[in-house]
Amino acid sequence: MPEPVQAPIQTFNDTYVNNNYVKSQDQIMKFRNYLVLENCPPALAMLKALRAGKLRITPKKLFWNLVYLLIAVGSVAIALLLTSRSAQAAWFDDNWAYRTSLTIGNTGGADADKKVKFDIDTATLLTAGKIQADCGDSRFTDASGNLLDYYLDSAGGACNTASTDYYVLVPTINSGNTFIYHYYGNPTAANGTVAAQFSESTFSPTSGPTAGSEEKGAGPVAYWKFDECQGTTANDASGNGNSGTITPGASGNLTAGTCGSGVSTEMWADGTTGKYNASLGFDGADDYVSKTSPVGLPSGANPFTSSMWIKTSSGTSNIYLLKWGTGGTSNTMNALIYYGATNSFSHAFYSNDLSSGANTLTSGAWNHIVATFDGTTRRTYVNGRQTAQDTPAGVNVTANQTLWISTYTGAGNFFSGQIDDVRVYNYALTATQVQQLFNQGAGVRFGPNVGTP
Fold first, then answer.
1. Given 64, 86, 108, which residue is the final one in a domain?
2. Which of 100, 311, 326 is nearest to 217 (CA)?
């Protein structure tokens, strides 16, 4: 099993300014006062004179001290605005399309390990097709993206009503405001509610809970999970309609088949146990997946991320794993290419390649490979860790061309092995986001190495 990668965790309620962590509201007030005095020496002198009872001030001195004070207060306001913006939480898992922030107000002292009741209008969400029929794809996180346990109290307020009752177990309730997030919009998620009501006491907020505006996640523009286990359609889970056509050839795998059939000439049978649930097996001779006129794929020199899991069964080199654009001319395609001789992969713009490095892949095992490009810098990742980077010039990927998986153009360079969880984003994932993707949306992945999570 690949070694888990711990993604860095930032505590939302810690404001980081001038190398100091400011945690409580009292500390924040003291820090504001410190900034004012630090940036306004005359104000500090006035404070000392006031304390000593020796304040003597002329109108001119009063004027300039007020000017200094206004400048200092403005600087503090800008600093606090910037730090509050930097505290916005990253999306915990892009398989969830929507989230809403929830604010728990507390004018009393801090508390811990209490359940908090939220009344949420799930009827409107269901009507809009944004949540599962049983509301089971609801997830709650703290502001750092850590999952929180919840109980959906159907007896008190069932799903598909204007006031569905969710009880969320909150580990830390601050003195002041505590922010959590409600995620929804994952049609394939398992039901997330615990089976029974929590034994912990209920915390009653002094204000709220109040809901913020709904946010839509920046998920992939194309996403093939390869979990269908039958048929010749690879469904696109991104919602952009980029479902692909599965094509078994005339040798090796002869049909798409079904998972678990035990028939060695079926693509789904070869992919019965994937990295996550099922996968799709390719024979290296003539199997592939294609999508004509894909929607939303990055072109030109626009940013992108390509991500997939592969398990090789052949050491052949120059094998195309994923490709769109044209090729044949420098910088006109976007492709991931496998090199079995060196146990590596490359990202290619055509005649402008970046290798992950020799022996960065493990033959016969599941490997997570990612390539990103932010418009300037291109990077490769293997199993959550960056392996290489460069700054390619002249990138101009051709738009509106067929996308291919396991082949160059359906006539050669076929892959032998299993492919799972293929994603394309129209922006460059950060290193932390790549780690979370490797660990299935968490800082560290817990669960089986392959198959059903």
1. 86
2. 100
pLDDT in tens, 352-365: 999 999 999 999 99
* Helical spans, DSSP H, in 57-107: 59-86
**Higher pLDDT residue, 394 or 88?**
394
Domain carrying residue 127: 98-216
For residues 346 and 387, state if they share a domain: yes
Amino acid making up residue 170: V
**305's tokens:** 């991320």
* 125 lies in some domain: yes
Same domain, 153 and 272: no
Q: What is the pLDDT of residues 431-448, one digit of tens each?
A: 988 998 898 754 444 345
**The token pair that represents 93 in the structure block:** 């898992």
Q: Look up residue 280 and give its amino acid.
A: L
Q: Hunting for tokens 């693509």 — which residue is that?
A: 267
- Whether residue 72 is found in the same domain as residue 182: no
- The full DSSP string for 260-284 is T---TTBHHHHTSS-SSS--EEEES
Report residue 97: phi and psi, to 5°. Answer: -85, -25
pTM of the model: 0.63
